[in-house]
Amino acid sequence: xxxxxxxxxxxxxxxxxxxxxxxxxxxxxxxxxxxxxxxxxxxxxxxxxxxxxxxxxxxxxxxxxxxxxxxxxxxxxxxxxxxxxxxxxxxxxxxxxxxxxxxxxxxxxxxxxxxxxxxxxxxxxxxxxxxxxxxxxxxxxxxxxxxxxxxxxxxxxxxxxxxxxxxxxxxxxxxxxxxxxxxxxxxxxxxxxxxxxxxxxxxxxxxxxxxxxxxxxxxxxxxxxxxxxxxxxxxxxxxxxxxxxxxxxxxxxxxxxxxxxxxxxxxxxxxxxxxxxxxxxxxxxxxxxxxxxxxxxxxxxxxxxxxxxxxxxxxxxxxxxxxxxxxxxxxxxxxxxxxxxxxxxxxxxxxxxxxxxxxxxxxxxxxxxxxxxxxxxxxxxxxxxxxxxxxxxxxxxxxxxxxxxxxxxxxxxxxxxxxxxxxxxxxxxxxxxxxxxxxxxxxxxxxxxxxxxxxxxxxxxxxxxxxxxxxxxxxxxxxxxxxxxxxxxxxxxxxxxxxxxxxxxxxxxxxx
Amino acid sequence: xxxxxxxxxxxxxxxxxxxxxxxxxxxxxxxxxxxxxxxxxxxxxxxxxxxxxxxxxxxxxxxxxxxxxxxxxxxxxxxxxxxxxxxxxxxxxxxxxxxxxxxxxxxxxxxxxxxxxxxxxxxxxxxxxxxxxxxxxxxxxxxxxxxxxxxxxxxxxxxxxxxxxxxxxxxxxxxxxxxxxxxxxxxxxxxxxxxxxxxxxxxxxxxxxxxxxxxxxxxxxxxxxxxxxxxxxxxxxxxxxxxxxxxxxxxxxxxxxxxxxxxxxxxxxxxxxxxxxxxxxxxxxxxxxxxxxxxxxxxxx
Lengths: 512, 301
What we know:
The structure holds two protein chains of two kinds.
Chain A: E1 4-15, E2 18-29, E3 33-37, H1 44-51, E4 59-64, E5 67-69, H2 74-79, E6 82-85, H3 97-102, E7 108-109, E8 112-113, H4 115-129, H5 144-157, E9 162-166, H6 174-189, E10 193-198, H7 201-207, E11 210-215, E12 218-224, H8 230-238, E13 256-266, E14 273-283, E15 286-291, H9 298-306, E16 313-318, E17 321-322, H10 328-333, E18 336-339, H11 343-347, H12 354-358, E19 369-370, E20 373-374, H13 376-390, H14 407-420, E21 425-429, H15 437-452, E22 456-461, H16 464-470, E23 473-478, E24 481-486, H17 493-500
Parallel strand pairs in A: 3-10, 3-11, 6-9, 9-10, 15-22, 15-23, 18-21, 21-22
Antiparallel strand pairs in A: 1-2, 1-4, 4-5, 7-8, 11-12, 13-14, 13-16, 16-17, 19-20, 23-24
Helix pairs in contact in A: 13-14, 14-15
Chain B: H1 3-27, H2 35-55, H3 60-88, H4 93-116, E1 122-124, H5 141-158, H6 160-170, H7 172-177, H8 182-208, E2 211-213, H9 221-231, H10 236-255, H11 264-282
Antiparallel strand pairs in B: 1-2
């Protein structure tokens, strides 16, 4: 018997114009959690797709338990007990949790599904591994965290013993991440081998046994996590030293740019209000951060502020002008820029080219349109300028379809478009969600430089580190209300956590 | 049997059969706008086969069986044009379906004229052999419809085949990732819609008249069936109920033209007005299979 359950030996996979995997070797031991670390576009997903049978490598081979195997399709992978939790869950929203888990491997008698039998088996598994799910709930009604547990149960139900997690924490809240880490340790303790794709160093340090680092398609090395440090790993990943802390000079805030007065927003889920009587302001030259656990009204508030949804009561003033009911275009022209939470839904037209997306906030200006006809040459020139200036990397430059770009570069494109508008107020909602350290560092720098040039910045973030590092003032949102205003210099992460959990408050007690 | 009840049963039968067919296609992820055309082709094949068999003095029982099977097979073959174009070649489903509709009437007229060897596209047949009673209007299609409704319900919600079919209309990538062949399931969905659509077309003309001029197609019943399917929320039992509502409206339109001092046009418009009102009222809650209309490409992730 070999020491390794899976060995990928000298894998090379080429795409037109790019070598996605260049002679990579990855060996997975039984019962270990093996992290695969790399920036966006480093080749992690390609390598896992090769293992899962979605791509065939040009060179190299795969061994399972020391024997050479050929994996031509996901079905072959399943037959070898390799399972994968994809970054974007593959769940049928209108099906129940039970139906989703058994889909494709239904227990049947004469073609009829034996749901009871399936349910019993799943219950046993969920108890064994500590994965609580509600089998009869419909997937679209359950939380993202539970959806992920459903995906894990799907793998376990198929008796998979090699589990691939493709950036599993990108969509989770901090609490859910902690829980996932526990689950992963449980799985490994029960003898499952885990491949964990990520670019978050904290997670690797807390759960992984070993870590293989990829950079630009090449394997940089495999290290024991216990013998290394965050700094060392990030240097391996990026190829240079990365600054984790953000440097920003002291500035005295200027005039008030955004004034929010007693704003309430109706909830879409229940009859009450998602945002209750929120008041605050943002001044020139400061970063105000709305912190909170996901789902406490931040999304609804930002939708109302940016004009995507209606305000129920209250007023919003931008540079003294009442924009409470103004259309989005007007808000934008008045100096509001918005880096939206869901970059694929609200930030980009995914099937448009990069240049068309970059000009989306400007295409009506005479520079880009003449009597209703687009001035393509100027658009191209403008796009090329932004691509260069903001280092947006893509396969074919301005004519790349945005869907094909990596998450980090999609985000850079949005940041370029929104900042180049020269806004008075920049709203950035979870601007670094799902990005790698290099891209995070870059976007943080951009946000801070906006502040330094006396712009007002409103940041919404779920990442505590980001909140503490970037902001000049922190507003904590809990159940639709602002429950605390904190100064990051005098507060601690622990204290912030208490406010976020609703255990503590220092403003708004009499608002009810 | 009172005429109102009789006609309602006739129309309900046709609408439910065709709407169920549409449901299978859409549940698998293919929008089937070509139902009207499929009905026309099914009706034509059934009419010609039964007409030929009658002339050849074929026993009635055999005549009925063979003609019905002919309508199903022709409906299925015609639906495969949609299937191959949209599943294999990933053509736009809306346009292909519309093309099928336009083609069907023209094709039917040509074939009917070849059959009658006259400039007329009218085919005559003995409708009585399909009816429960000699002078009645309700045919044995009622039984087919009831069986199809019940069987659809069981298939979709109780068997693994149904679960797999539905997953392809909702999230084909998810289906693919657990080893389900999305293309196969979609061909299955379109096939069932072709079979039920062809049968529905034949049921419509046989129960309506003793001869049929194919230049009229099937007078928009395929489109009405699409509305029934949407009103029925892509669920078998609800589709049956929706078909009853629309069947009743259609009956009122035919039987009560010109009474009560209301112009007959109002009655004639009734099914379509009801159709529009119902769709407007239910459109907010209406939930079509999520991935319908999107060609599935295994390579694209």
